[in-house]
Amino acid sequence: MRPADRGQIVLTLTQLRDSNAAGGGVHVLTGAGSIKGKADYARIPSQAREAIRQRLQAQLGPNAELRIPIEAGPHNIPVAQRILRDGSGNPVPSWTHGEARGIRAGEYYNNPAARQWSTLNPSSTTTRVHGGAACFGCQPLQQVYGVINETGFQFYSGRFDRFGLNPHWNWG
Ligand SMILES: [Zn+2]
Predict the structure, then answer these.
(1) Interval between CA 23 and ligand 1 midpoint (Å)
(2) Which member of 11, 39, 42, 111 has the lowest number of beta carbons within 10 Å of its beta carbon?
(3) How far is ligand 1, taken at its centre, from the CA of residue 74, in Å?
(4) Per-residue pLDDT for 16 more than 80?
(5) Interval between CA 138 and ligand 1 midpoint (Å)
(6) pLDDT in the model for residue 167
(7) Mean pLDDT of 20-31
(8) What pLDDT band is residue 161 in, cutting at 50, 70 and 90?
(9) How far is 2 from 34, CA to CA, in rounded Å?
(10) Which residues have CB under 8 Å from 24's CB, separation 6+?
């Protein structure tokens, strides 16, 4: 695996606003990076998918649902539909990031993104760029779409500041 590939596994978990028909919370798992410029991001390890599914169901109940847009099945999002676009129809600058993809998934499912967590991949070559904290491109997306960021912003030193109140919109 090339070092550049290892850097593609920054994951974002997005909680959608509404529960499913069975009353379980709905979350979406997306990854950062692009494969050969396509709107694809296949490098979410199967162990990570399973770990997060099991954890969500253990914590939220058996009806908790984890949707992964790249997986086959009823919640697959076609590649061309995975790109978050601005009002002019252009891809937003950080469209390859997990946050933008989670927000786009919420649009596609007609169930808006409400809350996001992003992970740091220890082996990533890009963690000093992204670090699991929302980048300068994703932070304004979260603000515009009303998504609460639970794991921090690069702009605020890239850490989750439990004692801070910045940015104000993230804390109500
Ligand atoms: Zn970003």
Answers:
(1) 31
(2) 42
(3) 27
(4) yes
(5) 4
(6) 79
(7) 95
(8) low
(9) 14
(10) 60, 61, 62, 63, 64, 65
